[in-house]
TrEMBL record:
Family the UniProt entry places it in: Belongs to the chromate ion transporter (CHR) (TC 2.A.51) family.
Keywords from the named record: Cell membrane, Membrane, Transmembrane, Transmembrane helix
InterPro entries (UniProt xref): Chr_Tranpt_l_chain, Chromate_transpt
Lineage, highest ranks first: Bacteria, Pseudomonadati, Pseudomonadota, Betaproteobacteria, Burkholderiales
GO MF assignments: chromate transmembrane transporter activity
UniProt cross-references to NCBIfam families, sorted A to Z: 2A51
TM ranges: 20-39, 86-110, 116-138, 150-183, 226-248, 260-280, 309-327, 334-359, 371-395, 407-423
GO CC terms in record: plasma membrane
Subcellular location: Cell membrane
Organism listed in the record: Variovorax paradoxus B4
UniProt membrane topology term: Multi-pass membrane protein
Name this polypeptide is given: Chromate transporter, chromate ion transporter (CHR) family
Amino acid sequence: MRPPEPVEPPAPVSFWQAFAYWLKLGFISFGGPAGQIALMHQELVERRRWISEKRFLHALNYCMLLPGPEAQQLATYIGWLMHRTWGGIAAGVLFVLPSLFILIGLSWAYMAYGQVPAVAGLLYGVKPAVTAIVLFAAWRIGSRVLKNAWLWAIAVAAFVAIFALRLPFPLIVLSAGAIGYFGSRFAPAYFAPGGGHGAAAASAGPALIDDDTPTPAHARFGWGRFARVLAVFLLLWLGALGTLAALYGWNGALAQMGWFFTKAALLTFGGAYAVLPYVFQGAVDHYHWLSATQMIDGLALGETTPGPLIMVVSFVGFVGGWGQALFGPQALFAAGAAAAAVVTFFTFLPSFLFILLGGPFIESTHGNLKFTAPLTAITAAVVGVIVNLAVFFAYHVLWPAGLSGRFEIPSALIGAIAAIALFRFKAGVIPVVLGSALAGMAWQLLVR
């Protein structure tokens, strides 16, 4: 029997009470965006009743339209709505800060002890599991998005463009957006937004920010506030990038990381898996901050930590800073940690801008936002790009020495079992990664 629905809203929540929750969330936010959003819904809508179902979904729909990690942006939005600008900054920063420290520690262990047999064995098992996870992500997004032949064609064209023609990811995104724009004019039925977030669950009772709660003063749109927020963020971005260029030169690794990951942050439509090919092209092929094998290892580590998966860019920064010995051979850890912090700052700064700049406008609508036709087409293209990423991983995992080298049968078996667990039994990412890691370590110990 269900307990009776509360009739009074909960007591007001102070900034520091919310701060404690956002800090806790940063340590337990496993499971990717879907799991993180579900966790916030359970806590903030159902249990704590800080925000109503309708207002929660209203904020989520906006975050789903933005480039960047939607779960982190949703936390920022709710924190901002509750406790003004500093509430949003606290929520967004604490969502990623624990993950940054954990990844710096794991990256140091990887660079210092990555050749230790036990560590190498764990990574041997995790890499084919990550390949299966990426393929599963493509299937999950595709099954939701590819609703007709037009969208399937866009996905296939995107795969061919990046796999066979080696076209840059930004060009693919812009082309897909243009197709969606013209498609909405000439064939609107094929580019209508699909899916949603499901019907609203039964009411959990009155909330602090309820369906009919007036928009607080700080969340009301005004052009003066819009201009001030934009100016502050531009100054922050230019000041940080200018400082790095002044200290280490524009062509130095830190300034180039700041510029490159700013661009990457603006292209993360469809989640981390969608932008990873762009990061591969830049970090591995163009700048040579790390190798393809190291990039795959970094994604494997990223899958095992809390926070957004895009935090794998912190690993990219750490390895790049360490490998280039930015501060000399005696300060490799400092170089890696500094580069990881720089990359994280520039990757997430736009997310805060989008929320603090656009949030007041979204609060003024209180309607159900829908995906635009260009975004529908971009999301379809993202499916093809993610499949390319899975192919890239499979090649480097199964033929580490190239097609002329040995085929890694144990890796293929681990990957196949991981895929069965994900597709057939709907297993979670963390159990799959941990099980695969143990299998890899056991195999490496057997063949020693």
